[in-house]
Design a protein that fits this description.
Elements (H helix, E strand, L loop, with lengths): L9 E2 L2 E2 L6 H32 L4 H33 L1 H18 L6 H28 L6 H21 L4 H7 L4 H26 L15 H14 L1 H34 L4 H33 L2 H19 L8 H29 L5 H29 L4 H22 L8 H13 L1
Helix pairs in contact: 1-2, 1-4, 1-5, 1-7, 1-9, 1-10, 2-3, 2-4, 2-8, 2-9, 2-13, 3-4, 3-7, 4-13, 5-10, 5-12, 6-7, 8-9, 8-13, 9-10, 9-12, 9-13, 9-14, 10-11, 10-12, 11-12, 11-14, 13-14
C-alpha cells in the first residue's frame, strides 16, 4: 500500500492532503451533506407541482418528468466539462458558491410557472447549478484525501450524501404538508416548500465559499485559455486507461440509478396514493419516509463498509460487487405490486439503497486511484459528464416506460443496465493479469506514468 504523507492531518483512519485545516475538512463534509440533497429534492417534489399547480394528467406525468430531466441534463452535459476545467484554474471555492447560488434562483422561480413551457425555461437556472456542484463535490472528495484512505473517505462522503438525502426526504419532503397544516392553500404550500430549498442553497453558497480551500486550482488570467482542450484531456484519459473508462461507466449507472429513485419512486407512490384517496402532500410524505428512512438509511449504513471493501480488494472487483447488489435491488423493486405493503417493499428498499451507494463508492474509489496528477478536475468533469448522460438516458427511457408499460418498469430497466455493466467489469477483472494488485499499487503506477 502507498505510504501516507505525514505532513497532512491524520484523523482516525484518514490521512488528508497536506495544507488542509480542520475547518476545510468539516466544510467538505457539509458540502457532501448539502449537494446531493438539494439536487434530488427537485425531482422528488416535482410530482406535487405537476398535480397541484399545473394539473397535468397522471398519464402524462411520467414522460413529462423524463423530458424535463433530459432537458436539464443536456445543459449539464454542455457545461460539466467546462466546469471541471474552470475549477482547475479558478479553484473550487468560487465555482462551488456560484453553483449553489444559481440553483437557489432555480428553486425561487420554478414553482411560479403556470405553463409547461415555463417549466423548461425556469429549469435552466436549476440545471446550471446542477452542472456545477456535483463536479465540485467530486473534485473536493478526490483532492482532500491521500490515496491510502481514499476508499474510506469516499465511503464517509457517501454517508454524508446519504444524510443530506435523508434530510431532504424526511424533512423537506414534508414541507408541503407542513405549510398546508399551517393554513396555506395547496399551491402556496408547494411554493413555500420550493423556497425553503432556495434558502438552503443560499446558505450553502456562503459556507462553501468561506470554508473550503483550493488545492490544485489556481487563479490565472483566463482570457485566452483553451478550456475545451482541458475537457478533451479528461475524455482522452478514458481512451488511454480502460479502468477510467469503466469508472465513467459506473458514473453513468450510478447517476441513472439516482434518477430512477429520485424521480419515479415518488411519482409512483404519489399516483398510487391518489388512487387510494390520499392528498399529493400525504403521498409525498409517505414516499419521503420510504426514501429517507429506509433506502437512504440503508445506503448510509452500508457506504462505509463498501469503502472498506474498495480499500481491500481490487477496485474493479469491488465495482462488480456493487453493480451486482444494485441489480438485485432494482430488479426486486420492479416486481413490487403494492408500495403501501411495508412487508413487501421494505426489503427491496434496503437492498436498493445498498446497491445505489455501492456503485457510487466503488466507482469513485476506482476513479481516484487511476486518474493522473495535474488533470484531476478535467477528468472529474468528464466523469460527471458520463453521469449526466446516464441521467439523461434514465430520465427519457424511464419516463416513457413509466407511462407506457408500468409504474415500476424504470426499476426493471435499471436492473438490466446494471447487469450489463457488471458483466463488462467482471470480464475486465478476470482477464487482467494484474488483478491481484492491491489498490495502492495501481495508484503508484498511475503516478509514475503521469510523472514520466
Amino acid at each position: 500500500m502507498t505510504k501516507p504523507d505525514t505532513n497532512g492531518i491524520h484523523f482516525g483512519p484518514y490521512w488528508f492532503t497536506p495544507g488542509l485545516a480542520p475547518i476545510n475538512i468539516a466544510t467538505a463534509l457539509y458540502a457532501a451533506f448539502s449537494t446531493l440533497g438539494v439536487i434530488t429534492f427537485m425531482s422528488f417534489i416535482q410530482p406535487y407541482l405537476l398535480t397541484e399547480v399545473l394539473q397535468i394528467p397522471e398519464s402524462e406525468q411520467g414522460s413529462l418528468s423524463g423530458r424535463l430531466g433530459v432537458y436539464q441534463e443536456v445543459i449539464v452535459i454542455l457545461l460539466t466539462g467546462f466546469v471541471g476545467a474552470t475549477a482547475d484554474r479558478r479553484g473550487i471555492r468560487i465555482v462551488y458558491a456560484v453553483g449553489f447560488l444559481t440553483m437557489g434562483i432555480g428553486y425561487l422561480i420554478y414553482p411560479l410557472a403556470d405553463a409547461v413551457w415555463q417549466l423548461y425555461l425556469f429549469r435552466t437556472f436549476f440545471a446550471i447549478g446542477a452542472a456545477i456542484i456535483p463536479v465540485m463535490l467530486s473534485t473536493c472528495v478526490v483532492e482532500y484525501i491521500q490515496d491510502v484512505s481514499r476508499g474510506k473517505w469516499v465511503g464517509t462522503s457517501s454517508i454524508f450524501n446519504g444524510l443530506g438525502v435523508m434530510f431532504m426526504s424526511l424533512v423537506l419532503a414534508k414541507t408541503p404538508q407542513f405549510y398546508f397544516d399551517m393554513g396555506s392553500d395547496p399551491i402556496s404550500a408547494g411554493r413555500f416548500a420550493f423556497w425553503t430549498a432556495m434558502s438552503l442553497c443560499f446558505i450553502s453558497a456562503a459556507i462553501v465559499y468561506f470554508g473550503l480551500k483550493n488545492i490544485s486550482g489556481t487563479k490565472v488570467d483566463h482570457s485566452h485559455e483553451n478550456i475545451l482542450k482541458s475537457v478533451k484531456e479528461g475524455i482522452l484519459e478514458a481512451r488511454n486507461n480502460s479502468k477510467i473508462a469503466l469508472a465513467f461507466g459506473a458514473a453513468f449507472i450510478g447517476r441513472g440509478d439516482l434518477v430512477v429513485v429520485g424521480t419515479f419512486f415518488s411519482l409512483w407512490i404519489k399516483q398510487v396514493g391518489l388512487e387510494r384517496g390520499m392528498t399529493s402532500a400525504e403521498g409525498l410524505a409517505y414516499a419521503g419516509f420510504l426514501f429517507g428512512a429506509v433506502i437512504q438509511l440503508s445506503a448510509l449504513c452500508w457506504a462505509f463498509f463498501m469503502g472498506m471493501i474498495a480499500d481491500r480488494v481490487n477496485r474493479v472487483l469491488a465495482l462488480c460487487i456493487g453493480l451486482t447488489i444494485a441489480a438485485i435491488g432494482y430488479g426486486g423493486m420492479g416486481q413490487v405490486a403494492d408500495p403501501f405493503d411495508l412487508k413487501q417493499i421494505i426489503p427491496w428498499c434496503i437492498i436498493l439503497g445498498m446497491g445505489e451507494t455501492s456503485v457510487i463508492v466503488a466507482g469513485g474509489a476506482l476513479l481516484g486511484q487511476e486518474m493522473p496528477l495535474g488533470r484531476r478536475s478535467a477528468v472529474v468533469g468528464a466523469f460527471t459528464l458520463a453521469g449526466g448522460i446516464g441521467i439523461m438516458v434514465a430520465n427519457f427511457a424511464g419516463g416513457e416506460v413509466f407511462d407506457a408499460i408500468a409504474k415500476t418498469a424504470p426499476f426493471t430497466m435499471m436492473a438490466i443496465v446494471n447487469i450489463i455493466v457488471m458483466l463488462i467489469a467482471f470480464a475486465m477483472w478476470y482477464f487482467d493479469p494484474k488483478r491481484s494488485f492491491k489498490p495502492g499499487k495501481a495508484t503508484e503506477e498511475a503516478a509514475a506514468t503521469s510523472d514520466s
